[in-house]
Each structure stands twice: as structure tokens, then as C-alpha cells.
Amino acid sequence: MTLPMSDPTAWATAMNNLGMAPLGIAGQPLLPDFDPALGMMTGIPPITPMMPGLGIVPPPIPPDMPVVKEIIHCKSCTLFPPNPNLPPPATRERPPGCKTVFVGGLPENGTEQIIVEVFEQCGEIIAIRKSKKNFCHIRFAEEYMVDKALYLSGYRIRLGSSTDKKDTGRLHVDFAQARDDLYEWECKQRMLAREERHRRRMEEERLRPPSPPPVVHYSDHECSIVAEKLKDDSKFSEAVQTLLTWIERGEVNRRSANNFYSMIQSANSHIRRLVNEKAAHEKDMEEAKEKFKQALAGILIQFEQIVAVYHSASKQKAWDHFTKAQRKNISVWCKQAEEIRNIHNDELMGIRREEEMEMSDDEIEGTKETEESALVSQAEALKEENDSLRWQLDAYRNEVELLKQEQGKAHREDDPNKEQQLKLLQQALQGMQQHLLKVQEEYKRKEAELEKIKDDKLQVEKMLENLKEKENCAFRLCVSSQDSDYPLEKTLNSSPIKSEREALLVGIISTFLHVHPFGASIEYICSYLHRLDNKICTSDVECLMSRLQHTFKQEMTGVGASLEKRWKFCGFEGLKLT
């Protein structure tokens, strides 16, 4: 928009009074020696009258900076800004989708052409509804144009250079509520809602799993095709799904029963194949575990060799020839190699320990489950027999009641045959009652036995716990009573077993080594004993086993870096020697 400036001196004087640098339309300074400090409103930074922005509205101004409005010149009128010290004009709440503004305070001689000339700078005008009472309604094409029009609220308008009251007025611009704006806004909201629903539906369809393929209807031709597919391993799953769908649909009848039986028989023939596949996979898994263990053992051997190299290099013969930095590197490498070796060794020992624990746990659980399942099965069988006898007794009672009713209806003397039948039924009823009482007594006896066995089991568990506590107390007493200053020779000359706790340990270790014919290391033995008592010391166990030379013996196994000390049980051989 181009704003004509008829008097540059007046323009510069007005801007000087506002404390702004006087500039022309193109931005050139009108007064080159202007000092902003001499203005009336100091502290306001210089502002260009024609700021870049949307039409006559300047860009957003920070909230801490006061808004300065300038004079607007049009062809037929002039707009003078309001006093900046006054509060901003009040406006109503903005209606949704508002594109219409109310303009009041128009001059009495103002025409629609002047209104268009003033407000077309804010944007495209769709319609103007002017009233005879100096106000009008203006509808714009877009919503943001309403904000531009509100900028003109509070301006004083003057038509030409006339000072007549009919040619002047103070504009008041406010939001207006129009049905057309509300209708367009609702249409837009509905369109956005449709787009959102469509987007969500497309997202759900994208994330929804694909539908299964449709299953064909049953016919002899399709039945033969499915029967051939059932024999093929690659198409077995698809054929079984089709067969299941046909059976659930109710396609089985007398005519097609043989065909369905043959297909079920074909499906049953795949059980052996599946079992063989499972066994093959389990075998592969075991082989992979064994390979992993072997590879881990080989890695450990190589780690031992590397650690041996580091230890040999740390000896004085070779250590003195290395520099200080080389010695530091060798010591760091040796420490790292030992840590990695210990980690791998713990992992291998953990795998072996888990395998042995799984085997022992499975055996114990198997025996317990078999005993309990046998008792439970007996109790269930007695309960079923009791129920069946009760049902038979109810049936006999019903027959007797029916016979009595028939006898009452006939109103005649009883025949000898009926009397015999009644006697037989009564005798059978008495026998059934006696048998039922016997079965109930046996059932109660079995239940009492089952409860007794459970109580015995709880008592045994409590006894085991008490025995463990006694072992701990005996061990503490034994440790406190031992004198650590006695020499080793005196302890060897005395009795090899000093207490009941040591006797228990000898029995447990003998049982453990008896199931390990190739021997076990002292760490492996102590890891097993720690499951019973965490306070068992490795040195005490090794000292006890070394005292019993006829019961346990120590052997060296392995070659080179894998050399290992293993303890074996030799009690049967020592019995012959002693």
C-alpha cells in the first residue's frame, strides 16, 4: 500500500514528537541531524513507518514494547491514530471461524465506497452490509484479515479536509457473529473430522493382521485334494486347517464319514514324524551344548597356557631384562587374562553343576510324584466306585417305588411272583447298602492313610530341619573347642574323626564321590556341601579327607596346564586293607 505524504515537514514533526527517527516512504532520513534523545517520548527505539508485514499491520511487537500507530492517508479520507496512553479498545469474545467484523462510529456522510477504500487494505472483502445508523458489517475472505481490521479500532476518520461533524467519526471495530461464518467453520470441522477418521481407519487397516484365506466348501473333489495334501509334509498345515473347518461346519455325515476317517488317519500318521523331528532337534541341541562345552574347555586350556607364559615371564630370570613399561604391560595383561579365565571357568562349572542338580532334582521329584499320584489315583477310584453304587441304589429305590405305586393302583391281591420280585429287590437293596457302607469305610480309611502319610512327610521335613540346626550347633561347638596352637602331627596321631559333625560330613562326601567314579575337585565337593550348610570351610574339608587315607585318596589328572587334583572314594578298597 502506498501512503501519500503531502507535507514532509509535518510528517517529520509528528514523528519527532513520538521519539522516532523521521523517515520517508522509501526509508530515507528526512532530518539527517535528528537526535532521538530530544523527542517527547524517550526510550522508544526508532521504527520504520512502512514496516514489512501483512498490508498495513506491522509484524508482531514484543509485549514489553509499546505499540505506536501512525497516520494513514487514503484517497478520500485520513485516519488519525488514537492516544497511545489510552487503554486498548474492548472487544467481545471471538466466535469460532469469525470472518465478519462490526464497524461503528462511521461519519454520517460516509459511503460504501469510502468503507471499501479503508478496509480493502486488510484483505479481500466478500460483502458489506451498511446501516443508516452509522455502522456496518464487513465479511472478509479469510479469518486472519479480521485481525488486520481490528488494528484500525480507535482511529479517528476524517473525510477529505473537512472539519464538519458529519464528515468525522471514531471507528470502533469488533468481532461479529454471522451464521455464514459459523456454517463454514462447522463444515470445515466436519471435513477435518472425516479426514481424521479416514486416517485412523487407514492406520488400523495397515496394522490389522491379514485375514486368513477362505476355506472351500466340502466336495468329493476337494476331499481328494485335501487327502493328497495331508500326505505332503510341506502342505500338511494348510490341509489340517481345511479339515478342521469342515468338521466344525458339520460336513461329516454317513456318506462322507469314511472319507473323513481316512483324512483323520492320514493326520494321525504325522505324529510319528513330528516326534522324530522333535527328537532330532533335541539331539542337535545336546550336540550343540556338548560342542559349546568342548570349545569352552579348549578356550580355558589356551587361557591357562597364556597365563603360564605370563607367569614364566614374571620370573626373575626374564623379568630383569624387560623395561619398566614392558613389565607394566605384562602385569596388566596377566591380570586381565586371569580374570577372563576365572569367568570362563565359573561358567563351565556352573553348566556342569546345573546339569547334575537337574538330574538329582528330577529323580527326587519323580519318586515323590509317583507315591502321591498312586494314593490320589486310589482315592479317586474309590470315590468313583462310591458314586456309581449310590446311583445304582437310587435306581433300585425308584424301581421299588414304581412297583408300590402300580400295586396301589391295581387294588388287588399281590401275586406270588410280585412278592418274590419285591423280596429279591429288597435283598439286592440290602446287599447294595452293605456294600456301599463297606466302600465308604474303605474310602475313609484310605483318606486317613493319605492324611497320615502327609503328616509323616511333614514330620520328616521338620526332623531334617532340626538335624541341620543340630549340625550347625555341633559345628560351632567343635570350632570353639578346637585349639589352633596344636601341631599337625598331634592331630594326625589322634583319632581321625573328632565329632558327630565330621562323621556326617564323611558320610555325605562318601555318597557324593560314590556317584562320581572319576573323582571331583575340592571346589566341586565344597559347592555341593554349601547347599547344606554355608558355613563349611574348604580347608577343614580338605584336612578331614587327608586324615582318612583309607577312605579318600587324591590323584592328579590332566596334562600340562589342565593338570587338576581330584579326590576319589576308596572306602571299599580300604576296608580290605584295614
UniProtKB/TrEMBL annotation:
Name of the protein in its database record: Ecto-NOX disulfide-thiol exchanger 2
UniProt keyword terms in alphabetical order: Biological rhythms, Cell membrane, Coiled coil, Copper, Electron transport, Membrane, NAD, Oxidoreductase, RNA-binding, Secreted, Transport
Family, per entry: Belongs to the ENOX family.
GO cellular component, one term: extracellular region
One GO process term, biological-process aspect: ultradian rhythm
CDD domains documented for this protein: RRM_ENOX
Domain RRM: residue ranges: 99-178
SMART domains registered for this protein in UniProt: RRM
Cofactor list: Cu cation
Predominant cellular place of this UniProt entry's protein: membrane
Organism of derivation: Molossus molossus (Pallas' mastiff bat)
GO MF assignments: oxidoreductase activity; RNA binding
Location(s), subcellular: Cell membrane; Secreted, Extracellular space
InterPro entries, A to Z: ENOX, ENOX1/2_dom, ENOX_RRM, Nucleotide-bd_a/b_plait_sf, RBD_domain_sf, RRM_dom
Pfam families cross-referenced by the UniProt entry: ENOX1, RRM_1
Residues in coiled coil: 264-298, 379-470
Domain of life: Eukaryota
